[in-house]
Amino acid sequence: MKVIPKGYLHHMKPSYQTIFGIALALFLSFSQNSNAQEWEQLSPSPFPGRHHGIGFSAGGYGYVISGSVSNDVWKYDPVNDTWQQLADYSDLQRGFGIGDMDGDIGYFGFGQTFGGSFNGNTNDLWRFDGPTESFEQLSDCPCAPRTHPALVYYNDKLYMGLGSNNGNLGDWWEYDIPTDTWTEKSTFIGPNRHHPYQFVIDDYIYVGSGHFSDWYRYDPAADAWSQIADHPSYIRVAGAQFAYNGKGYTLSGVADYNNSDHEPMPTGEFWEYDPLLDQWSELTPHPGMSRWAPAYFIIDGWVYLVAGETYDGESATYRYQLDPGVTSIEEVQENKIELYPMPFEDVFFLPQDIKWKSIRVFDVSGAQMSGIEVNGRTVNASSLAKGAYILEINDGQQFYRQSIIKH
Fold first, then answer.
1. In degrees to the nearest 10, what's the CA dihedral of 372, 302, 206, 359?
2. Which band of pLDDT confidence, cut at 50, 70 and 90, is reported for residue 213?
């Protein structure tokens, strides 16, 4: 493998030397601000044991709406580690619902509602405006009312389906936000199910688990489904799920084993899905046994785990830093790997004696770049514009991060 010789930077064109320096400085700042991969305990929430709370984040705050058949709204301040109760979102007491975010705007509904104009399984939809902390009811879905569906935001639309109403469902619906209208889409190709996990990565929606181990990818542009790698470990339902920086995550929940379909897992299992490799990797579980239907939200790269029904008396709030990072300039230098060629045009090669678990590329601001294709040790980055980037690569034991340059 070719290694960049000492003094090489002195012979680079000034534009690339400048970009390289800026990239390295920003990268080191980004890395030094990252934290170790451990769960940090916070103050307990005012609603321990609450299940199916719907979590959002907006304006640097966390919010938990309803859950355990309630209509209250709670606001979390991460700076002071404190909770504040806000006005109820409506007179509808809700449980077993679902929600997702678009920036500072949240969408939620479905589940069961009581105390209002309708009691039982519902098909309603609500909008939460984070900046004003206000709520608006939108058009009901012209579908069967249901509990435990999948619901995600993508490209000015919501996608909702599956769930339960006197049996598992497998339909799939698109809600167009600007026009406030619903359209039925292609039916889910896996077995009908309720309480699946779901997230969005780039231009695809991923849905799976929910009393099964299989997972599927939905292409909104083609309105088509395809199967991906099964989820490892226990068959599970009712946990937390989200995407962050091009990866998908499943956290906690309860399992289908020991002749019980809602059995707590021994640990709060935490898994990461890499769509480039179609592969799951296990991360550090949250403390204690797993939880049924916890609330969660992400603030400044931290995922917060809140409440949920617990089985071991462990109901504390925890958070976990999703950016692994490194802690010193020395570590950055020591963890460099040999890449060829560098700078590169469209393609570069990784060392061939290591089986890599995941690969990510960031721009100098820390935003993850999409469109990177990996085939064995060949990395096709033809989708990138010319400039400097940060490569993060994981061999299953440690992360390597270093600058790369496309010319």
1. 20
2. very high
